[in-house]
Protein: DUF2975 domain-containing protein
Amino acid sequence: MPGEAITLMYKASIFGNFSPYIMSVRIAVLILALFNIQKGVQAFIKEGFFNFKSSERFNRSEYLLLLLSVFGIIIRLLGMNQSPKEQILSDIILYLLLLAIGIGLLAFSDVIKKGNIIETENNLTI
Structure:
């Protein structure tokens, strides 16, 4: 595609010509969060339920999902006049779901971390 066609395509977008790069960064953050969740589950299988490695992986993915969802909601609210209202509503619901998953991962990693501490104390008393 010639440069003029690309400029016209992204002219109405919030970020202009940087829109594909912003989308690439958002996709990379989502893939990184999913990779951390996968590594956390893998640590469950290898090292048992209560371990710090899976807790840290879930904690990282939680922050990435929170960042992605808040950034997505802000982008959607800034570009409200460019999309139909149904599309905006469904996107915001999707980002709120990501936010809820991130908060759930935060609680889950906290339970794992505290369970590991209790398990360590229990092993020391025996």
Notes: Helices lie at 3-9, 19-47, 52-78, 85-125. The chain has four helices and no strands. The chain has a mean pLDDT of 85. The two ends are 70 Å apart (CA to CA).
